[in-house]
Amino acid sequence: SNLKHLFMCLLAISIYFSAIVHLIPVSTAKNGVSSKSRKRIMPDPVTEPPVTDPVYEALLYCNIPSVAERSMEGHAPHHFKLVSVHVFIRHGDRYPLYVIPKTKRPEIDCTLVANRKPYHPKLEAFISHMSKGSGASFESPLNSLPLYPNHPLCEMGELTQTGVVQHLQNGQLLRDIYLKKHKLLPNDWSADQLYLETTGKSRTLQSGLALLYGFLPDFDWKKIYFRHQPSALFCSGSCYCPVRNQYLEKEQRRQYLLRLKNSQLEKTYGEMAKIVDVPTKQLRAANPIDSMLCHLCHNVSFPCTRNGCVDMEHFKVIKTHQIEDERERREKKLYLGYSLLGAHPILNQTIGRMQRATEGRKEELFALYSAHDVTLSPVLSALGLSEARFPRFAARLIFELWQDREKPNEHSVRILYNGVDVTFHTSFCQDHHKRSPKPMCPFENLVRFVKRDMFVALGGSSTNYYDACHREGF
């Protein structure tokens, strides 16, 4: 009951925090010139704990649906016209992918019940609409996946009701901004104006459908076609990249060495292994943080055995190490190398779509990629958003393409992460506002970044993806 009380207190605090938008103006005075105040993502000394608090971070990661959030999507001077939108999401809340050995699995119901918390006014209609979609034609093997979660005891990795509600909320928010306010799609939109792609997991397909239902309620099933993406990096036909894999191996080695140095972490794993009566190695391999986060997000007490209980102190040590690992990952830059090569194919595809839209083509005006933390994280890193938090459940990263009505040949881009405008934190646009009065980032900055500067950032002399992937002597 202490755990429950602590959780409810933290939940109350986190709901209070999420109601306060995490944005404070920051004035940076470089060379004595003060730039205009810029919104920034992190950290906010007014509302955030002064030291990184592992439980606070974990609750942000849970992203428990509460108050409707304020967001910066669709904000632009009135003479700008929205041309296309590209949305990358992480799937919503899911059941763990791992179990803590020799303990009872957390009991969470993965059927959708309209009047159960977390609630969403569209949930009942969503369930009804999904039950009519069994004839939908999606690219194989997606057509064999269930369209919504439906097990009384969740299966491993299955989307939960929380996960569905998170994305119904995302979809509704984007509908209010992009369709009602900006009229991105006509009322009689056609199938080729959407581009939908997902990995082959039920949780990503279902998250994509929930967002789409919030965005286009009661859509015509005949107009919906999801493409299957076999790679979590969404690299399509450009996945072979030996140098990217070398960066990843070095990054994994860095993680391993950091773990070895953390004696408190070792001690904690040892204690937990004793409680569940398995070797420490086996407990670590079971990735207990994944299961513990599920207990925390769903307010289920941590497991006990006759040897004792896994508790909040164990959780804090493991979560704190995770946060330290992210911090060191940013400093060491190996992950950045992996990210630049890992995110290049999907960014290249995205600017291809945007370029066609600048030419006045009307296809694929709204693109949705339903993906994983391991998809969004490299994209954030490659864009230079090193301060951005690790992708929470139902995280969204959005690229908006705008046209200046007064100069129709000029196009601009905005990047938003979980509703916060991070355009001027990206490496391709962070200095733009010092040189230009324009309120947005020129589209050509993004194009130049993807076509050239991503390779420059890797060092070496490569000027294209193939050469950068096959560079000798890395």
UniProtKB/TrEMBL annotation:
Catalysed conversion reaction: 3-O-[beta-D-GlcA-(1->3)-beta-D-Gal-(1->3)-beta-D-Gal-(1->4)-beta-D-2-O-P-Xyl]-L-seryl-[protein] + H2O = 3-O-(beta-D-GlcA-(1->3)-beta-D-Gal-(1->3)-beta-D-Gal-(1->4)-beta-D-Xyl)-L-seryl-[protein] + phosphate
Any GO BP: glycosaminoglycan biosynthetic process
Keyword rRNA-binding attributed: no
UniProt GO cellular component terms: Golgi membrane
Membrane association type: Single-pass type II membrane protein
Location in the cell: Golgi apparatus membrane
GO MF, any single term: phosphatase activity
Statement: the UniProt record of this protein carries the keyword Transferase: no
Pfam families per UniProt: His_Phos_2
Keyword annotations: Glycoprotein, Golgi apparatus, Hydrolase, Membrane, Signal-anchor, Transmembrane, Transmembrane helix
SUPFAM superfamilies: Phosphoglycerate mutase-like
Function: Responsible for the 2-O-dephosphorylation of xylose in the glycosaminoglycan-protein linkage region of proteoglycans thereby regulating the amount of mature glycosaminoglycan (GAG) chains. Sulfated glycosaminoglycans (GAGs), including heparan sulfate and chondroitin sulfate, are synthesized on the so-called common GAG-protein linkage region (GlcUAbeta1-3Galbeta1-3Galbeta1-4Xylbeta1-O-Ser) of core proteins, which is formed by the stepwise addition of monosaccharide residues by the respective specific glycosyltransferases.
Protein family: Belongs to the histidine acid phosphatase family.
Assembly and oligomerization: Interacts with B3GAT3; the interaction increases the 2-phosphoxylose phosphatase activity of PXYLP1 during completion of linkage region formation in a B3GAT3-mediated manner.
Protein name as catalogued: 2-phosphoxylose phosphatase 1
Organism: Rhinopithecus roxellana (Golden snub-nosed monkey)
